[in-house]
Amino acid sequence: MIREKLAESIRRSLTDAQTEGVISFGMLPEIELEVPKNTQFGDFTTNAAMVLAKEAGMPPRKVAEVILSHLHAQDIVERTEIAGPGFINFYLKPTWLHDALCRIATQGAQYGRSDVGQGTRIQVEFVSANPNGPIHVAHGRGAATGDVISSMLSALGFDVTREFYVNDAVNSKQMQNFGKSVHARYMQALGHDFPMPEDAYQGEYVIDIAKDIVKEYGDRFLSMSVEERIRTFTDLAKEQMLELQKKDLADFGVKFDVWFSEQTLHESGKVARVIEILKERGYAYEKSGAVWLKSTAFGDDKDRALVRSNGQPTYIAADAAYHLDKFNRGFEKVIDCWGPDHHGYIARTKAAVAALGCDPSKLDIIIYQAVRLFAGGEMVMMSKRAGDVVLLSELVAEVGKDAARFFFLMRSTDSNLDFDLELAKSQSNDNPVYYVQYAHARICSILRKAEEMGVPVRRACDTDLTPLGHEAEISLIKKLAEFPDTVAEAGLAYEPHRLTRYCQDLAAIFHTFYTECRVMGEDPALTNARLALVDSARIVLQNALGLLGISAPSTM
To answer: Which own/partner contact pairs does 71-74 have at CB distance under 8 Å and 24+ positions apart?
Structure first.
């Protein structure tokens, strides 16, 4: 990657200068290189001299002079300049652009991938919806986010496991209410005048589950006690709901490697064992008949209950056992992707991890913010099927998988997301996913036309690229060359929105190129070079959309 190669040249320059005694500093600073918005300021610019000036005890421009006097980058740098208070602008040789196209053509589907992760084992846990209702729109944002983070990390050479944590503990009040709700609907389906319980689940899907139970089993459960029926219905409904959740997520392009049951933590004794470990380590104590985690020792605002006074473990006890299990399985980094209502759980979860002797810095927690759906300028409030939320399956049926994923991923996870249903369905340049996919379809159309005319599309490595000099061509090549850096930066920062932004920018630059540069012209050399460029754009756009889990259509 050209950015990293240039950054390494700057690091070497500073190290050599320090060895010679020309400059003195402690730790080598992070070398940041930016692409100037105005091309007259070069291909890359850095503020490294200004960052280092104070520690070196030298004016920034003097530090810049030292860097340039020791720079060994003649193979890629044509000229440099020191600008303003000490920025260094780098103007690269045109050949680096040609090398970038050649690398794209050679690597093909692997372009943008690297071995930065070197096989480091990472677990990404996301969605983890309770198995008492279908996947809804808010879960959809978490699903898209976790899935693309996983894809980007895999592309960077990490060994990634996608995991769904099934909150199916039998002591869960939510699951108990779910079982009672299904039981009530079952009795009603058999013609009994049976009231719905307090805090019942009111969605039509509960009625459907009850009808399915009646269809398969009839009234055979009436011979059981009410308590036994509720336990049975809770298990039956949970399994049916998990199958529906798996289907909805698969239709959304998300599949998990592991579906981990919370109940297994209780059945295996791991929850009880974790509480004992915390006591042994001095981070759990008894008070008022309950057991408490001394989470304040790790920065939490108050201690948290691990076991209630009635002897039932709390969620934090199971979460502690679950995270210990993650690290015991050999994961070197654990990423949790949670919804906005879980922000308060960050401190207590990290405290539990630390109290168990694990490194809390190896646990990263991402909180994604709320989603609001709009149609015709009005907010969509609820679904008939779910009762109080809009289902992901309904959204996918309305706008399609590609649009749903792209829209979910367009904003940073720490920003609320307003989802415009009408825009997502429109076939216009105002629709960002349509705009990006249309760029790929336009590329494929150009390549088909060349084939129909008998003009071969040669790889960039096998083509004379010197005719490429138009500003629109150069801008396009530079954008294509940025892709590996974009994947690395977005993946390591857990920020999928950088990738959707890249796709939109690349599509815009390609559409400009298409408008200003006639590909199939009268000059054979220029035609061949432009066809090679167009094919490189196809590869990169397809790779980018692939990481987003979005299709790259050849026609639209």
So the answer is: 71/9, 71/10, 71/13, 72/9, 72/12, 72/13, 73/5, 73/6, 73/9
CA-based nearest residue to 148, from 545, 547, 499: 547
Cβ contact 126:162 at 8 Å: yes
pLDDT (0 to 100) of residue 207: 94
User: How far is it, in rounded angstroms, from Cα 489 to Cα 385?
Assistant: 40
The contacts of residue 554 (CB under 8 Å, 6+ apart) are: 440, 441, 444
- Cα separations in angstroms, 64 against 21, 83, 84, 399: 16, 10, 11, 52
- Domain 98-112+429-548 is classified in which CATH homologous superfamily? Isoleucyl-tRNA Synthetase; Domain 1 (1.10.730.10)
pLDDT along the chain (556 residues), means of 10: 86 93 88 87 92 93 95 88 95 88 96 97 96 93 98 98 94 89 95 91 91 94 93 93 96 98 96 97 96 96 95 94 98 97 92 97 97 90 68 95 98 95 95 97 97 94 94 95 95 98 98 96 95 98 98 95
Question: Can you spell out the DSSP letters for 6-38?
Answer: HHHHHHHHHHHHHHTTS---SSPPP--EE--SS
Contact status, residue 510 vs residue 476, Cβ threshold 8 Å: yes
Cite the residue boundaries of each domain of the chain with CATH code 3.30.1360.70: 2-92
Q: What b/e readout covers 284-313, taking b as 16+ CB neighbours within 10 angstroms?
A: beeeeebbbbbbeebebeebbbbbeeeeeb
Q: What is the DSSP letter of 517?
A: S
Query: What distance in Å separates the CA atoms of residue 20 and residue 128, rounded to the nearest whole number?
Result: 57
Alpha carbon distance 440, 131 (integer Å):
39
DSSP state letters, 63-103: HHHHHHHT---TTTEEEEEEETTTEEEEEE-THHHHHHHHH
b/e sequence 20-40, b meaning 16+ C-beta within 10 Å: eeebebeeebebebebeeeee
Q: Which of 203, 136, 207 is nearest to 390 (CA)?
A: 136
Q: Calculate the CA dihedral of residues 67, 72, 78, 80 and round it to 10 degrees.
A: 0
pLDDT at res. 387: 65
Q: CATH 1.10.730.10: which residues of the chain? A: 98-112+429-548
User: Other CB atoms closer than 10 Å to residue 72's CB: what's the count?
Assistant: 11
- What pLDDT, on a 0 to 100 scale, did the predictor assign at position 193? 92
Cβ–Cβ < 8 Å for 547, 145: no
Pick the CATH number of 2-92 from 3.60.15.10, 3.20.20.70, 3.40.50.2300, 3.30.1360.70: 3.30.1360.70
Please give the order of strands across the beta sheet that includes 87-92: 33-34, 44-46, 87-92, 77-83
